[in-house]
Amino acid sequence: MADARIVEAKVIVTCPARNFVTLKVMTADGLYGIGDGTLNGRELAVAAYLRDHVVPCLIGRDSERIEDTWQYLYRGAYWRRGPVTMASISAVDVALWDLKAKRAQVPLYQLLGGRCRESVRVYAHANGHSVEDLIESVAKHIELGYKAIRVQAAVPGVADAYGVPHGTKTYEPADGDLPREETWSTPKYLHFMPKLMDVVRAKFGFEVALLHDSHHRLTPIEAAALGKSLEEYQLFWLEDLTPAENQDGFRMIRQHTTTPLAVGEVFNSVFDCQRLIAEQWIDYIRAAVTHAGGITHLRRIASFADLYGVRTGCHGATDLSPVCMGAALHFDLSIPNFGIQEHMPHAALTNEVFPHAYSYSGGTMVPGEAPGHGVDIDEALAAKFPYKRAYLPVCRLEDGTLHSW
After folding, report:
1. Are the beta carbons of 24 and 377 closer than 8 angstroms?
2. Which of 107, 122, 142 represents a domain boundary (last residue)?
3. Tell me, what CATH number does 81's domain have?
4. Does 339 fall in a domain?
5. By three-state DSSP, how is residue 104 classified?
6. pLDDT tens readout for residues 97-116
């Protein structure tokens, strides 16, 4: 009988194009599993929590007891939840699921109940410094086969806009050795958005699904006004309209618009979205494998959401490693209330460090049939790219008031 005791666990921090935190868990029978613990702009906090507080507790534990280990790290910590704790638990959880599927010699989705669909619908990011640039970006993504596209464009008269890169580089918000300060105007944004969507729909029609991210920058009444003003353009969703610490804020938005609403990429437990789901104030929950307690807890969130007709739309930007994407695709394939998966392709260098079995084709992705979640890490190559401090920006209104970024 295989010896599934954990004998070693190491934390690997690497920066192939951006920073990632990876946990590698090894067992007495020679197998290993890996999990993603990346927390954008706070990577070393998770690395320290894992190395100093979690890894010592893993040695000697039975890697097969995934649920028990999850409860041990969550209930046993006393100081529960929070992004650092939950990203750390996620890293362990995904590594243990990877191990369990490798030991069974099956792709992970088979242990999660098998396929609910043949492939996973994904959406891409299109952006531009002008409306013309955005139109060109949308057209390029349609040529690549995407049938769902998030659209973000610079707002006239506003120095910075979320989702739009600086210069000609690929968009990566964590780009400063110290936080870069951006300037924002909500009135100009609200005035511009219907005009933008009108141009995009006029150019591409209604065959392509359009999404848009407000990135927590609106009050509930402002968000309600935006949703109402965009109803005729039939968006797939409006994302992160307002900070969701006050879940009741979404009650007002829901009362004023039928535009589908998505939120949750910063959530780390079911308690962050309990009322949002139960009151049916949202349509899509965007919690991520890496930030919401791993596959074990994200399945709980999805099962709870399914009771109320809420579907998933997991965060999948480049601030999560290919390990998270691999795990997310197995999760997406296996749940009944899957909605859509964000797909922001990683840099070529990132893909070299994290070889993977998943693939993209024609607007969908599949996780592949490799045992486990199908993503590995090249430790020798990873060691060549040391951590580089990188902060997310902060945001100020035009009068200098600090605002939600």
Report:
1. yes
2. 107
3. 3.30.390.10
4. yes
5. helix
6. 999 999 999 999 999 999 99
